[in-house]
Amino acid sequence: MAAVRPTTYTDEVVYTDEVAEFSPAVVEEMRSHLAKYPPERSRSALIPLLFVVQRERGWIDNPGVNYLANFLNLEVTDIWETATFYSMFNLHKVGRHHIQICKTLSCKIMGEPEITEHVCSKLGIHPGETTEDGKFTVSLVECLGSCGTAPMMQIGFDYYEDLTKEKVDKVLDGLD
Ligand code: FES
């Protein structure tokens, strides 16, 4: 698989006044998240709302951030400061399967470097890149809270633990 575009946390953020549009069903879903909090605490709905934006738009883009700022009556900087704090929010486009390999201590000791090397050479990309066909993105992330089953990676919302090269092959080969 050919190498692709580099993706850092900032290289694809295009600042614009454009505001994203969402279907009535998605807006209703957003309202249902908002309804869980008292009006003076509406900001607390930001994380579930960011997940909705990410699911709908594929990443946290500027129009999506503008929408949330309007929706929550916050400044765009309020949205960005939360979105940029958590690695679970993608600030650049990612492939259909976002492979997040934990690089923190337990995983590092238990073989993360070899796993990362294997994943990257198999896909022909480096950490932070997406395959040319848009299928895979590889990211190195901090502890995902599964240290007892290190080394591990997360793809989408699923955890893959006690990784070996053979297990990685089986997982990646099984993804559409
Ligand atoms: S160190 Fe890898 S999951 Fe905690």
Structure description:
The protein is α+β, with helices and mostly antiparallel strands. It has 2 domains: 24-83; 97-173, Glutaredoxin. The protein has 7 helices and 4 strands; from the N terminus they run ααααβααβββα. The chain has helices at 24-34, 46-57, 62-72, 76-83, 105-109, 112-123, 165-173, and strands at 97-102, 136-141, 153-155, 158-160. Strands 2-1-3-4 form a 4-stranded mixed sheet, with helices on one face. Helix 1 packs antiparallel against helix 2 and helix 2 packs antiparallel against helix 3. The radius of gyration is 18 Å and the shape is elongated. The model is unreliable at 1-10 (pLDDT under 50). Bound molecules: FE2/S2 (inorganic) cluster.
Strand order of the largest sheet: 2-1-3-4
Terminal CA distance = 15 Å
Q: CATH architecture of the largest domain, please? A: 3-Layer(aba) Sandwich
Name the structural class: alpha+beta
Taken in chain order, the helices and strands follow as: HHHHEHHEEEH
Topology (elements, then pairings):
Elements (H helix, E strand, L loop, with lengths): L23 H11 L11 H12 L4 H11 L3 H8 L13 E6 L2 H5 L2 H12 L12 E6 L11 E3 L2 E3 L4 H9 L3
Parallel strand pairs: 1-2
Antiparallel strand pairs: 1-3, 3-4
Helix pairs in contact: 1-2, 2-3, 3-4
The structure holds FE2/S2 (inorganic) cluster.
